[in-house]
Amino acid sequence: MTVNLEKGQKVELSKNHPGLDIVCVALGWDVNKGNGKPFDLDAFIVALDEANKPISNGVCYYGAKKVLSESIVHSGDNLTGVGDGDDETVTVTLSKLPANCNKLIIAANIYEAVQRSQNFGQVRSAFVRVYNAANKEEFLKYDLGEEYSTFQGVVFGELYKHNGEWKFGAISNGFNGTINDCIAMY
Q1: Which of 13, 57, 131, 154 is paired with 169 by a 20 to 30 Å CA distance?
Q2: How many CB atoms lie within 10 A of CB 167?
Q3: What pLDDT score was predicted for residue 14?
Q4: What is the DSSP string of the chain?
Q5: Mean pLDDT of all residues in 35-43
Q6: What are the backbone angles phi and psi of residue 127, rounded to the nearest 5°?
Q7: What pTM value is reported for the model?
Q8: Tell me: the pLDDT tens digits for 62-96?
């Protein structure tokens, strides 16, 4: 059964689904209004250690599709977001993550947002959903609200380990800049 999350809400994953190992984190969006320039959102995941610091070579995105011994794998870059459903998916094999990985930040930013004068006010129907890769069972879906219109990127949520169990927390923090600017927040 899918849980529809609100900002700040948390869901237990591994505790409620014993044996869960491979999860898919899918992001989707549509363009609300364009300015005549190509509109490209990029999903990415940042792996953090116990001190909430980025793990070396732990950023998975269209330019680094397989990281941390292929424990995190990106589906590839969707340049338009056109069509229904998932636009980009990142698959995470929990058992293959490094022992010091306690959190995965799930985010998206607009490629060349400054140069193209674009922001999340031009995006609609943005969401993240998490499901079991083995049987496609959807655990949760989190729809992004409208309050990010001035931002070029949004941290949707985090997949994190607490007392040995994996959970998902809906965050929705806006940021401006590139993937590197998001990473610098940690």
Answers
A1: 57
A2: 18
A3: 92
A4: --EEE-TT-EEESTTTSTT--EEEEEEEEEES---SS---EEEEEEEE-TTS-EEEEEEEBTTB-EETTTTEEE----SS--SSS-SEEEEEEGGGS-TT--EEEEEEEETTHHHHT--GGGEEEEEEEEEETTT--EEEEEE--STTTT-SEEEEEEEEEETTEEEEEEEEEEE-S-HHHHHTT-
A5: 76
A6: -150, 165
A7: 0.89
A8: 999 999 999 999 987 765 555 666 778 999 999 99
